[in-house]
Amino acid sequence: NKVSAGEDATVPLPAATMEPREIAAAARSFSAMARIVGPDPKAVKMRRHAFHLHQSGSTTLSASAVLLPPGALADPPPLLARICASHGHAGGVALTAASLVEAFLVAEQRDSPSEELQPRLVPEARLDVLVEAEESGNISRGDSGAPQWLSAELLAMVDVPASADSVSSLLTYDGSLIGSSSWDVGWPLADVNQKQVEYDAGSSLEYNRKNVYAESVDPSTIAKSATRIAILGVSALTSSNARHINVPPTPQRGDSLLVVGSPFGILSPFHFFNSISVGAVANCLPPGAVRSALLMADIHCLPGMEGAPVFDKNSCLVGMLMKPLRQRGSNIQVQLVITWEGICTAWSRNKLELIEQVSNELLDDKSADSKMVESCSMDNHRRYSPQQEWLSSDKCSSFGALEIWENFTFRFTT
């Protein structure tokens, strides 16, 4: 559209932008709350988390999530399709902060958390996502209804190196040595005595090691953990009820932002679900780069909103909210956004080639393990071992026996 400014000149009209309520209405279709429930008899899984529910020996944690039904993205990262295919998953996916699930990984993955393409949760751990009723497919489009819980499975935990590098540079820019940086990543909390307790991404890596603090963790490790994304499969999300979402050009300082998240979600899911926060891009990182992997946002967010999708003034997907940059010993926070551009760069075809290589190695290892188990089974017909007696006794559950047997064959083959 143009308006006349004389006989030989025209002035273009400014492009129409959406009202915040219109952006929110469109954005809620791509927003969810992720919940994990698992056994926790010693009540330790909630450590380093802002809030939780613990009852009857189980702990429940929650975070926000980006919801992507099949076909929602015109050009999804190749890695997403590869991960779904490797798990035989044909439904939609939800992306959330990996810190949500790390405490419920099996011991060998939990003790040294890193990128995992075949993550395994402890037995009896359960994942769900809360979605708008429209997205659950249980009611007709346009009708109102209560949000619905949909079952989910953990497909992978993947790093975003470019965003992690930007976070690491923030933690170390003042030239401080490891352990003396004035910056951290995480929500500042207060205990029952009103003393500030620092729950951050770095210390979650060390939560089961006594007398070890986040200050001793390498900043690059903290940054990787804070930007790591868990990919959840949601089979009930199908293309029949999918909407489409666009990705904007590189965000610029001053651009409007809208976040749809669920702060303190699990404490009262239907009250906090898909709450709205608005603000603007304060700065882009790395400084001076053509493509931004991380954004500083002037926006008010609360614990539990990590993992939430972030949208621009045209309801395009800008990225995913992470835990904030925080000044140690104070409540000063800077909200950080992992850009979708950074995610796509990290999950590109180059990354896919590495995934393929690792997958082939896993298949070779499984084949070798299968042959070894078969060989051991044949040998067991000829001789009886004390280990076999222990494994068959009531002292060992079937899961424990499998884990010990796998460890035994691994040590034997190496």
Could you provide a short overview of the structure?
This protein is of the alpha+beta class. It has helices spanning 20-27, 78-86, 99-102, 107-110, 133-136, 161-172, 201-204, 219-227, 269-272, 340-346, 349-380, 386-392, 398-413, and strands at 2-4, 10-12, 31-39, 53-55, 58-68, 92-97, 126-131, 148-158, 183-190, 196-200, 229-234, 256-261, 275-285, 294-299, 309-311, 317-327, 333-339.
What does this 3D model show about the protein?
By secondary structure, the chain is an alpha+beta fold. It has 13 helices and 17 strands. The protein has helices spanning 20-27, 78-86, 99-102, 107-110, 133-136, 161-172, 201-204, 219-227, 269-272, 340-346, 349-380, 386-392, 398-413, and strands at residues 2-4, 10-12, 31-39, 53-55, 58-68, 92-97, 126-131, 148-158, 183-190, 196-200, 229-234, 256-261, 275-285, 294-299, 309-311, 317-327, 333-339. A hairpin with a 5-residue loop joins strand 15 (309-311) and strand 16. It starts with a strand and ends with a helix.
